[in-house]
C-alpha cells in the first residue's frame, strides 16, 4: 500500500487491517516520542513506553470518528489518547491504594516510603480535573496544554499542529498555565 499517511490512518480507523499495518512503521517514531515525553519526569506513571504507545495506537485505530485533516491532527489525537490512558492507569492505581486488592503488610514493608509517587499521581489526577475544567471554558487553551504537556511538543510544533502562530501558542500557554495554577491552588 503506498497511500499518503492520512489516507492510511483513515482506512485503519474504518477497520482496514492492512492500512493499519502499513501506517504503523510511519507513525511509530513520532508516537514513541510522544509516549516518552508523557512518561518522563515527576509523577510519571509506572507504564512502559511501549505499552502506552501500543495502547494509544490501538485506541486511535479502533475509534470511529471524523476523517483526519492531516498527520498533525492524528498526533494531536494520539496525545489526547495517551493522556486518557495515563489518567485511567493512575485512577486504577489510586483505587487499589484505597482498598482494592488489599493485602496485609509486615511492619518492614509498611515502612518503605511510597508517599512521593502517590503524591505525584494525585497531582496528575488533579491536573486532569483542572484540564477538563479548562476544556469546558476554553478548548483552544486545553489543546495547547495537551500537546505541550502530554504530547511533549515544543511551541513551534504545537503551533504547526494546531495551525496557529508561535505567538498565539505562547499566549495560550501562558493563559492555560495561569488557569491551571489557580484551579490547582483552589
TrEMBL record:
Sorted UniProt keywords: Sigma factor, Transcription, Transcription regulation
Span of domain RNA polymerase sigma-70 ECF-like HTH: 5-184
Coiled coil residues, start to end: none
Classification via Pfam families: Sigma70_ECF
Presence of keyword Ligase: no
InterPro entries according to UniProt: HTH_Sigma70_ECF-like, RNA_pol_sigma-70-like, RNA_pol_sigma-70_dom, RNA_pol_sigma70_ECF-like, RNA_pol_sigma_r2, RNA_pol_sigma_r3/r4-like, WH-like_DNA-bd_sf
Family classification: Belongs to the sigma-70 factor family. ECF subfamily.
Protein's name according to its UniProt entry: ECF-type sigma factor
Amino acid at each position: 500500500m503506498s497511500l499518503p499517511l492520512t489516507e492510511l490512518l483513515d482506512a485503519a480507523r474504518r477497520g482496514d487491517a492492512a492500512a493499519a499495518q502499513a501506517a504503523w512503521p510511519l507513525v511509530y517514531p513520532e508516537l514513541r516520542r510522544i509516549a516518552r515525553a508523557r512518561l518522563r519526569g515527576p509523577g510519571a506513571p509506572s507504564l512502559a513506553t511501549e505499552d502506552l504507545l501500543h495502547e494509544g495506537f490501538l485506541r486511535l485505530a479502533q475509534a470511529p470518528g471524523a476523517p483526519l485533516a492531516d498527520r498533525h491532527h492524528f498526533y494531536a489525537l494520539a496525545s489526547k489518547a495517551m493522556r486518557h490512558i495515563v489518567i485511567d492507569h493512575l485512577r486504577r492505581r489510586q483505587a487499589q491504594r484505597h482498598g482494592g486488592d488489599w493485602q496485609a503488610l509486615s511492619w518492614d514493608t509498611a515502612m518503605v516510603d511510597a508517599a512521593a509517587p502517590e503524591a505525584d499521581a494525585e497531582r496528575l489526577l488533579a491536573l486532569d480535573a483542572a484540564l477538563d475544567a479548562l476544556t469546558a471554558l476554553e478548548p483552544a487553551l486545553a489543546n495547547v496544554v495537551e500537546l505541550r504537556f502530554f504530547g511533549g511538543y515544543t511551541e513551534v510544533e504545537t503551533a504547526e499542529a494546531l495551525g496557529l502562530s508561535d505567538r498565539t501558542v505562547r499566549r495560550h500557554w501562558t493563559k492555560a498555565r495561569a488557569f491551571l495554577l489557580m484551579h490547582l491552588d483552589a
